[in-house]
Amino acid sequence: MNAILAVKQYITKMVDDCGSGMKVLLMDKETTGIVSMVYAQSEILQKEVYLFESIEQPNRETMKHLKAICFVRPTQDNVELIEQELKAPKYGFYYLYFSNRLGKQALKSIATADEQELVREVQEFYADYYAVNKNLFTLNLPCCYQGMSWKPDKLERSIEGIAALLLSLKKNPVIRYQQASENARHVADGLKKLLNKEAALFDFRKGDVSPLLIILDRKEDPVTPILNQWTYQAMIHELLTIRKNIVDLSHVPGINKDLKQLLFSGEQDEFYDKNLYKNFGEIGQNIKSLMEKFQEKSQRSQKLESISDMKAFVESYPEFKKMSGTVSKHVTVVSELSKIVTEQDLLALSEVEQEISCQTSHSNAVEMINKVLHNEKATDLNLLRIISLYALRYEHHSGNQLQRFFDVLSRRDFPDRYKKAIQAVLYYGGKRSRGTDIFGGNTPLSITKKFFKGLKGVENIYTQHSPLVHNVLDSLIKGKLSEAQYPYAVGPPIRDRVQDIIIFIAGGATYEEAFSVHNFCNINQGLRVVLGGTYVHNFTSFLEEVVTASQRATDGLKCTESSARGQTVNIERVKQMIF
After folding, report:
1. Residues 48-76: what's their mean pLDDT?
2. Measured between alpha carbons, how far is residue 315 from residues 23, 278, 326, 503, 505 in Å?
């Protein structure tokens, strides 16, 4: 199961099926993002697609010599835009592709609008989700809950997105969900109705063991998105933020103009693909090796002593230039990450986070936090992390020190609205909201550190924390996943070992969980797992998710426009919401 390949095959097929000749790709805002996650513009150009246009843009130039490949979501707005387009066509012919199921009435309306009979094809291609990694997808839906319940439009979009993933992977799964979560049950019930209604669509050839879809709820594991991260992809997202595979470094003083917007896609960057899940120390070593290879090639290129030397260099120049860009990109990003780690003393703070999350000694936790509260390098945001973890871990401990910590924080001008944010975290993911004891199964462990001496400033740290997703998978393959806690919504109970598993986290997944799934599959050969969620969180976006979910439905609080489009979630906005 490969989410990126599934989407990419759809895009390739729609471009190839309309034949040779010059083409324009007409998309909406969502499908533009979906395509850009799996295909480089240069790749599509090689398939004679010379123009990329937005269907929402009314003042497009008329070019009758172009074929239009129209790839949009099957929304009412898009159907109306297609009708308008067909009544006043700007292109020679139209090939219509919808990213999900198109209703009969919508199809009839399009047929009626096509008076000039320019539509050559209408198909449903189920690329209605953002493929982040081979094993990770998102629906790019921040802030899904209000009053701790689904916003109706986000629930509907989630059901549609999961259905599209299943259709693209050709899976008709047995479905289980987290019994403690009403939100997970609503997703499972919605999928059950859809699968029954569209039984013909999901009539795939069955294997010996049915695939399995498990619906989880983010609030059942609020710890994972709070923690600082130490694997490459997760760390970039935590400290710099990845938005639809783009990292914005325009805020970095003196940054080269070519490095202000950087693309991080495993499909287009072999080094990134191989190092997604490497820890920070290993990344430093691997970049050092990459630089040494580049310097070796660079020195060779300076020794052009014959015509054959020059010919060989010209032939290898594109690869040489690409390698140069790869080196510059990763050296810049790792340098920026290293700077943040040093300036914010993240190694020390992360050790405290891990100990609070995984150990059982309350006195040790209090002692460590007392030291952190006097650490001048600790930012307010990182203090918010640590105190949030403490609040969750020792919520009902008889010696709870939360109020005393608040008093100490007040003396260092810690904002009151941050204190309210901690209360929101407790309301969202505290014991009253959870059905899972995420702390009960841990035993005291000590942080294991290993430092590479080969590259100054980059440490390789191994963390203790294990996400709930890992525990669910482990119990599942051992046949010990409780049917009371994870009941079946669709299909008969599976007694044999499952090979294909899809996990969807309502409220958002994380890169740490994708890393955990990757490791789990490496250990358990033959197991294939795809993880998805309404969003891919770092701590800042998770905080906004928490604050929004904690509001009453009547409060009318909305996510920022930027986060709804997959942009960086501004912590100042979160402050304002809490305040």
Report:
1. 93
2. 30, 33, 19, 45, 47
